[in-house]
Amino acid sequence: MVVRDYWHERLRSVGHRIPQVCTFAAFNTNIDAIVHLTPELLSHAIQKSGANLALEEHQASEELPDSVKSPTDFLRVIRSQLSEGKSCHIVVEQDVLPWISEVFCECTESMGGQAGIIANQMAALQATSVAYTRLLPPEQARLFDERVMMPTVINDDLSLLPIQEAARPDDEVKINWIFEYPKDVTYQFGSQQITTVRANRVILATRPRGAVMAFSPELTRHLPALGRMIDVAFMAGYHYANPEDNDGRDFPSYLEYIRQSLIDLTRLNPSLRIHYEYVPLRHEELESDLLRCVCAQVNSFGINENEIRRALRKLGYERLADDIEASERAYTLYRGALTLLRELGLDRVHLHNLGYYVIVLRKPYFVSVDDVIDASLYASALNALKAKHGGFPSASAMPAGVELELSEIGFTQLERFAREMTGKARQLGPAAWEQDDHCVLVTPAHVVPNPVSTVGMGDTISSTSYAMEVCAARQMSRVR
Q1: In this predicted structure, what is the pLDDT of residue 61?
Q2: Cis before residue 364, ω within 30 degrees of 0?
Q3: DSSP letter string, 297-365
Q4: Which residues of the chain have pLDDT under 50?
Q5: Is residue 6 classed exposed, middle or buried when 0-12, 13-18 and 19+ CB atoms within 10 A define those classes?
Q6: Rounded CA separation 274/299 (Å)
């Protein structure tokens, strides 16, 4: 009980903080069409699909399709993910969209895409928020917080315009379908019953040709000036890379473009911190090269407990991935995260899981371990508010967020991790250990039962905690 009191007191101490930084988020934004998947709605979809999944149970153990091309593909993906309770992001082809729109006509539209979600959340927390996306039709622009700014070149000068003023009526609209499901609900697939083990979602992503994960040619020339305006950048959307056409570039040329654009962002601002939020690629054969390219130019990397297995395997660490699959816990996740840190040359890996976070830092790190723990707790409280109420929680809501209880899952994982680390590293405090080249933190986090929404949780956790770390560094430099 004393340990829990310590953590909750520490959590309350961060409730009134504000990330006083200028943040930048690129590239992927879209409109999310959110469907709360009930057993009745799924039954309706099965009837409308013409499929009889009860006769296809042998498919349950087969690999999922690389994209959803038919109603049957859709149901196979849904069945698999409900059974596993894992998040899923998969491409949906244009041909099946009319069927989805007809079956799931009652949906809620909101801001989607990692860059859009991060930009709106940073604005809600009163940070200076800048976002960039290649597709900005009015339908998309209206979903941005009115305080978000867009870098725009006017008469060969770089300006920051209110993003809603920068909308372009001729741009394509990108819509992603999000199917959210709660915990402990039973769904019927013919004769097969599946009861969900946790709340999560399935994301079916559309890919308009204009949704390019690159800066426009005119803005590319001004990236050094843009970098000088911002303190921390959140880069996302690189998972849309493909072997052939990436805004007129083949894949090797696109990798060189990524490398050069990230270098240009820091050219006039070497202290700019850059975070990359991971999403698995559709084209798995490109994964390793893309990871190595992007991570060589960024500081921080965000990933979840499911995604890390994929990343490790693509980098050749099958055994570590198997260990996580066999016994997912803080210690196996730490070993995987440390491998990513070393293999990819990162300064920070933030692994977010249900009820706790594992953060590995390369020494020397630019802020203290205590600053990282406080930033992590702040992000968890914010994420709990988002799960509980939806939307983008404001800075004024944070005092209520820090009163929410941390999870028993987190305390159990922290206690178990402490036992497993005995004799292997020097303990720095109740949640941190160090070895020669790195520190590792395991912090308890919140779990909200039956969340209103699970979309953007990882993005919110990673971006908010890193923004708070950068804010702590700025405050420390001002004191000096």
Answers
A1: 54
A2: yes
A3: T-SEEEEETTHHHHHHHHTT-HHHHHHHHHS-SHHHHHHHHHHHHHHHT-SEEEEEETTEEEEEEESSP
A4: 1, 55, 58
A5: exposed
A6: 5
Question: In whole angstroms, how far apart are CA 204 and each of 9, 74, 177, 237, 450?
Answer: 40, 9, 5, 15, 21
Domains and CATH numbers, the chain: 2-30+114-169+211-479 (3.40.1190.20), 33-110+172-205 (3.30.1110.20)
Q: Are 158 and 190 in contact (CB under 8 A)?
A: no
Contact status, residue 451 vs residue 30, Cβ threshold 8 Å: no
- Among all chains, which residue has been given the structure tokens 């402490």? 418
Q: What is the pLDDT of residue 52?
A: 62
CA gap 24, 14 in Å, rounded: 23
186: helix, strand or coil: strand
3-state secondary structure of 272: coil
* Cα(394)–Cα(96) distance, integer angstroms: 37
Terminal C-alpha separation, the chain: 38
Please provide the DSSP assignment of 40-86 as one string. HHHHHHHHHHT--GGGGGGGGGSPPPSEE-SHHHHHHHHHHHHHHT-
For residue 152, the cross-strand partners are: 159
Q: What is the pTM of this model?
A: 0.87
Q: What pLDDT does residue 439 have?
A: 98
pLDDT for the residue numbered 34: 92
Question: What is the DSSP code (8-state) at residue 152?
Answer: E
Residues 213 and 2: their CA atoms lie apart, in Å, by: 48
Calculate the CA 198 to chain-centre distance.
18
DSSP one-letter code for 295: H
Token pair in block for residue 44: 């309706």
